[in-house]
Design brief:
Layout lengths: L4 H7 L2 E2 L5 H6 L11 H4 L1 H14 L3 E3 L7 H5 L7 H15 L6 E6 L14 H17 L4 E7 L2 H14 L4 E5 L2 E2 L6 E2 L6 H10 L4 E5 L6 H14 L4 E4 L5 E4 L2 E4 L3 H5 L2 H7 L3 E2 L7 H19 L3
The protein binds zinc ion (ZN).
The site of zinc ion has 5 residues, from loops.
């Protein structure tokens, strides 16, 4: 029987996947259109992307459901298809492994606004939206739930609670940090630092602390975040940094960190104690393949007792 995701990461570090959003654009999704709807309308294109990640060596794949909550889907008038879209996403990610053992991580992104009193959304609206999405993902068979690109603890908590209520077996809280202007440290847009986030996730029953995306969060800053997480929690850590800083070229965001360059950060991350390493915006199957190589090389030497 397949080990649970939580047990698997106790035995060895796992390789995550790379970007979905930027890959969907390359596959023809137009800016502003609903990438999650593609789980129903163009499942073969979503599958093709995730299959390339699986073939590159990913052990876990995030579902194409970053914007799969009712609030996000409402923007594209797909709010009535929350269950179908999330269910299809789990099936596609599972199919990408082609029968090989792999972990499907149900992805919940931010609801895309601010809660009262700063914004227009009531807490109960956001809670309902996350509950609905988490339930759909877990019922479809996701091995874990990640609440990602989070900047506020209030919103993160609603995501954690939703995953708990849905019966998720593993719950990953993933924060998006931005490097400060002077580059000396990093925190989320809402001012949350890694220590606070890690303590909060542990306190509220999350099973893993993570980071993804963010501005200026390269492999080295991700490593610093892992060390800071590790100082305050024993929970396993997952990281998905971007492929460098986006540059605007002809009105398009271009990510310039090459696979080999980014992969140099893999071993330092493993040494810092990261349990899952993947990548976020701008990364490609080639990045993940380079990660796989670096990781395997390192683990081989580890096993030889070097
Ligand atoms: Zn990203």
């Amino acid at each position: 029987m397949k080990k649970s995701f939580g047990d698997a990461i106790k035995e060895r570090p796992l390789l995550g996947d790379g970007a979905m959003g930027t890959q969907l654009m390359l596959a023809g999704l137009e800016q502003g259109n609903c990438g999650e709807e593609w789980n129903l309308t163009h499942p073969e294109r979503v599958l093709a992307i995730q299959r390339r990640y699986a073939e590159a060596g990913s052990d876990c794949i995030l579902t194409n459901t970053f914007g799969g909550s009712r609030i996000m889907l409402n923007r594209h008038s797909n709010g009535g298809q929350v269950v179908e879209i999330n269910r299809a996403a789990v099936a596609i990610a599972r199919a990408a492994f082609g029968g090989r053992e792999g972990y499907v991580i149900g992805d919940i992104g931010p609801f895309g606004g601010l809660m009262e009193p700063y914004g227009d959304f009531s807490e109960s609206e956001v809670r309902d939206a996350f509950n609905e999405q988490a339930k759909a993902l877990v019922e479809a068979g996701a091995d874990a739930i990640i609440i990602e690109t989070q900047t506020s603890l209030e919103e993160l908590l609603l995501g954690i609670r939703a995953a708990q209520q849905a019966g998720a077996r593993a719950i990953i809280g993933s924060m998006a940090y931005d490097a400060t202007l002077d580059g000396s440290t990093f925190r989320t847009m809402m001012g949350v630092d890694p220590e606070r986030a890690a303590e909060f996730i542990e306190e509220h029953g999350g099973s893993m602390v993570a980071l993804n995306c963010g501005t200026g969060m390269d492999m080295e800053r991700a490593r610093q975040a892992v060390l800071r997480y590790k100082q305050v929690t024993d929970l396993p850590v997952m990281v998905q940094p971007n492929a460098g800083q986006p540059k605007l070229v002809e009105m398009k965001a271009v990510y310039e960190e090459a696979p080999e360059q980014m992969a140099q950060g893999v071993v330092p991350l493993l040494k810092a104690g990261a349990s899952v390493i993947g990548a976020c915006c701008g990364s490609t199957p080639e990045h993940i393949r380079a990660f796989r190589q670096a990781m395997d090389e390192y683990l081989k030497h580890e096993n030889q007792g070097l």
